[in-house]
Amino acid sequence: MKSISIPISSQVVKQLVPGDMIELSGIIYTGRDAVLPKLVDLFKTGRLEEAGIDLQGSVIFHTAVSPAGVGPTSSNKYDIQSTIPDLSKAGVKIHLGKGRLSPETIAALKEHNSVFAVIPPVTALLESKISERRVVAFSEEGMEALHELHVHGFPCIIAAAQGETIY
Question: Is the dihedral of CA 49, 6, 137, 42 positive or negative?
Fold first, then answer.
C-alpha cells in the first residue's frame, strides 16, 4: 500500500502503475454528472481561481455527498468521462470512481500525467476516513454539489496509468 499526500506531484503520478494499491490523505474534491461539466467550464473560461478552486495536484472523486456517506458512481457516464481530459489538463492528478474508461480517455490521462483509480463501493469505510466536509461550489446541486473532503487513509486502486489499464 502506497501512502500519497494531496496535492500530488507529477513525479508521484509517474511512479503509479495499474494495480497499485494506494491510500490518499489531504483534500479531495467531489463531483458527478451535474457538477463536472460546470467545473470544466470554469477551467476553460479561466475562472477556477475566481471560484476559489485550485486543481493543481488535486483528486476528484466521482460521487455525491449525502448524510448516508459517499460511494463511487460510474465514471464512464458521458457527463463524467468527457470531463476527465480537460480536468486532467487543469491539474487533476487522480480521478476516483468506478467502471471501465474508453481507450481515448486512457490516452488523455497519459497525455496529461493523470491516473484513474477505482474504489470498491464501501460507503461505511469511506465515511470513516472523512474528517471534514464543505460545499465549495454549485450548492444548488444539493448532494451533487462540488464538495471538499478532508480525508486520511482513503483507499483506492490505480485502474489506469501510463496508457495502460487493469480492464
Answer: positive
